Amino acid sequence: MKDARLRRVVSTALLTSACAVTALSAQVAFPADRVLTHREQAPIVKAWIQQRFTQVLPALMQREGIDMWIVVSREYNDDPVFRSMSPLTTYASRRRTILVFSLGRGPAGPAFDAFSVGRFDYDGLYTVIRTHNDGQWEGLRTLVEKRQPKTIGVNVSEQHAHADGLTANERDNLLRALGPVYAPRVKSAEKLAVGWLETKLPEETAAYTHVMQVAHGIIRDAFSNKVITPGTTTTEDVVWWMRQRVAELGLGGWFHPSVSIQRKGGVKDRDIVIRPGDLLHTDFGLVYLGLSTDTQHHAYVLAAGETDAPAGIRAGLAAANRLQDITMAHAKIGVSGNQALAGALAQAKREGLVPTIYCHPIGYHGHGAGPPIGMTDYQQGVPGRGDDLFRPDTWHSIELNVMHKVPEWNGQAVRFALEEDAGLFAAGWRWIDGRQERLYLIKSW
């Protein structure tokens, strides 16, 4: 009860500033026929960060019992959380960047502040504790002595790469700067870092729908006769078309796309020409508005006389859709990734499926912070991270495959691999922009 009352007090104290930022975010209209320019994106991203500093971070710090969170980066060696805390105009941290988030009690109640110790305010997101480059650690020490935090969180973690950004050298410098009084108060902020990265605002989810629509549109074009001429086009042609399209739109990527073929009788080595009767698969992701996508879809190349894929191919896609449903039914708020994996695999096998499940969180990173549901080589559970619990207002890539025998291909086992981004909210799961339930069809005549 005490924690609940404190959260309400913090929320009330911060409501005025938060409402102004929320109003700005709510006014954003995302175009259906184009992507936003970088200039248009910049104020949206900045508003999200400001809103997250008031609506997300203070509650997370209370939850984890951390009064002060210190995030240290050096130029081109950024902490994994830095990108999510910096504006679009920032490509990397400058010199040494010391960000300090302080939660304390002021004259009017709980007080939260975001500081940058040094010379840079990052487009006004931080209150600067101005020091020379050589005086940053002294400036930090002065701030700590003024705020007198009982617990100080830093990003060191055995299990979570997203929460392990403090280098050995900077940790040594930090502990020396804190001295014998405050250094013993340092603890891992791994759950705080993960919570910060995994928790999303409603405004971010609304924007993510637009982001996913762009990603789906690129796949739709790639798996069409606009790009593919059966008998001529290769999988590599499609891969490079997708990557170039992302660049032309001014978007980013976090992995190189892939396109592969399955066909009746198997694919001979190095045969990458797309032919009638082929089942195509892509794994594709982009970065837009600082948010990553991850999608795997299938297409079928119609052979002469066909108007649709063979029934066995369509049934394989439906089986993969069923595995999505099963997986999400077991991945509930308060359940661990390993529990969801065990339950989903058991049910899928009872239903006669041949499943592999390897879902992951997504957002500011492609493979994001939070609980995984298996990995390709961890079908018995993921040590450590798999014990993390699902929380509301988080995004996840529902990534999996089923092996399905196709009668029209002489009973050949075919791999149907799907990946679709979805959000987990208090009311349950929701696909960000739907899911693939029908194959893309490519004509060969």
Description:
By secondary structure, the protein is of the alpha+beta class. Helices cover 35% and strands 22% of the residues. The chain has helices at 2-26, 38-55, 57-64, 136-147, 168-182, 190-198, 202-222, 235-248, 311-330, 337-350; strands at 68-74, 96-106, 109-118, 127-130, 152-154, 186-188, 258-262, 279-284, 287-288, 291-292, 295-301, 355-357, 360-361, 394-406, 412-425, 428-431, 440-442. The strands form 4 sheets. It has a 6-stranded mixed beta sheet with strand order 4-3-2-1-5-6, sandwiched between helices. Strands 12, 13, 14, 15 and 16 form a 5-stranded antiparallel beta sheet that branches. Strands 7-8-11-17 form a 4-stranded mixed beta sheet. Helix 5 links the parallel strand 5 and strand 6 (186-188). Helix 1 (2-26) packs antiparallel against helix 2, helix 4 (136-147) crosses helix 5 (168-182) and helix 9 runs antiparallel to helix 10. The termini are far apart. The model is unreliable at 1-26 (pLDDT under 50).
